[in-house]
């Protein structure tokens, strides 16, 4: 990114063709990240909310339709669906059964349901949903399946066809280790065709510099969601980040990350006065491990850990730990020892 900015500052757009080559490579890498071989199904968007809102605003909703989503989900995956209420759509926020969260969501699917929207990994507890089970249920009910994968991509592998997803969206500043201001939006071609184009623009075409074209109808590819000039600095950053992830391999990264979440999970379970909020089952975990302490509020714990150069996040009444695949185990043990001294 620094090299791009320096080049841009010194030479303006003189090397624009080189930038386009990086963009094309990023699209190919993104397609592989989703477990597919078609970069025609990937759009570069500003963030997760941009992709989710493209779905929410693009479907031809009818009065009486409903959309199902978890009541406990992050606002990005609640607000677009709640906003549809003014169009006669019923937003159905579903409380989840802790023992079987998928059963709660599947039970809420009915004749009026047009779409199920979930975060594949929850931002607060780190719960990893069984996407294949949810996707199969949506296929049986004829319901569209939309996944917010911002806490998933870069942490665990994903196969969009195996989970029978219609739309998968993720910003890039979490586990993908890339900058803010760019995200990935994958869409199944048949589902993408159901979305109207709310923001048309010159950049959505595969040959955008053909300004003399006669046919300005939106393209069939996912680029229909890219109306204007893209964030080239962020494109360079995300391309480099995906190159690093490819070097290690998503399967190896997922395994390494789960080993680290296991270390934290088992360590927190041994601490008296600490309540583990994240799942114990390995198949339910990703990279987030959250806890709370009966003797101390979460804000105090986060602040004390920060003073020790251990950076966590306050999420409601709990403290969220988020190591990545490269985090040394020694740092995890230091964090556990620090938590034991605070609580």
If you had to describe this structure to a student in words, what would you say it looks like?
This protein is α/β, with parallel strands linked by helices. The two termini are 41 Å apart. The protein has eleven helices and eleven strands. Strand 2 (66-70), helix 4 and strand 3 (90-94) form a beta-alpha-beta unit. The protein is 37% helix and 15% strand. The chain has helices at 2-11, 16-33, 48-58, 79-82, 101-107, 131-141, 189-192, 232-248, 250-269, 298-307, 329-342, and strands spanning 42-45, 66-70, 90-94, 113-119, 144-148, 167-171, 183-187, 274-276, 289-293, 313-315, 318-321. The mean pLDDT is 96. The chain folds into two domains: 2-248, 3-Layer(aba) Sandwich (Aspartate Aminotransferase, domain 2), CATH 3.40.640; 250-342, Aspartate Aminotransferase, domain 1 (Alpha-Beta Complex), CATH 3.90.1150. It has a seven-stranded mixed β-sheet, sandwiched between helices. Strands 8-9-11-10 form a four-stranded antiparallel β-sheet.
């Amino acid at each position: 990114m620094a090299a791009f900015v320096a080049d841009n500052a010194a030479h303006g757009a003189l090397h624009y063709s080189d930038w386009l080559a990086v963009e094309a490579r990023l699209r190919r890498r993104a397609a592989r990240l989703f477990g597919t071989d078609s970069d025609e199904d990937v759009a570069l968007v500003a963030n997760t909310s941009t992709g989710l809102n493209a779905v929410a605003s693009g479907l031809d909703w009818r009065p009486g339709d409903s959309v199902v989503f978890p009541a406990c989900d992050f606002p990005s995956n609640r607000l677009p669906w709640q906003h549809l209420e003014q169009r006669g759509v019923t937003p159905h926020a579903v409380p989840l059964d802790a023992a079987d969260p998928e059963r709660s969501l599947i039970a809420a699917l009915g004749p009026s349901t047009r779409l199920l929207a979930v975060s594949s990994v929850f931002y607060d507890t780190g719960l990893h949903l069984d996407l294949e089970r949810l996707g199969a249920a949506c296929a049986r009910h004829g319901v569209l399946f939309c996944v917010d994968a911002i806490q998933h991509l870069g942490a665990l592998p994903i196969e969009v066809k195996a989970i029978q997803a219609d739309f998968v969206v993720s910003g890039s500043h979490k586990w993908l280790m890339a900058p803010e201001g760019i995200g990935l939006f994958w869409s199944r071609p048949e589902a993408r065709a159901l979305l109207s184009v709310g923001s048309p623009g010159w950049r959505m075409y595969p040959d955008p510099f053909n300004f003399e074209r006669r046919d300005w109808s939106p393209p069939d590819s996912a680029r229909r969601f890219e109306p204007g000039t893209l964030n080239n600095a962020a494109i360079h950053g995300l391309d480099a980040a995906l190159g690093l992830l490819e070097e290690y391999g998503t399967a190896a990264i997922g395994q390494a990350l789960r080993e680290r979440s296991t270390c934290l999970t088992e360590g927190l379970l041994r601490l008296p006065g600490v309540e583990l909020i994240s799942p114990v089952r390995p198949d339910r975990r990703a990279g987030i491990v959250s806890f709370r302490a009966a003797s101390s509020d979460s804000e105090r714990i986060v602040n004390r850990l920060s003073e020790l150069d251990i950076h966590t996040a306050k999420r409601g009444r709990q403290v969220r730990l988020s190591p990545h695949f490269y985090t040394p185990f020694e740092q995890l043990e230091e964090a556990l020892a620090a938590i034991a001294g605070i609580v």
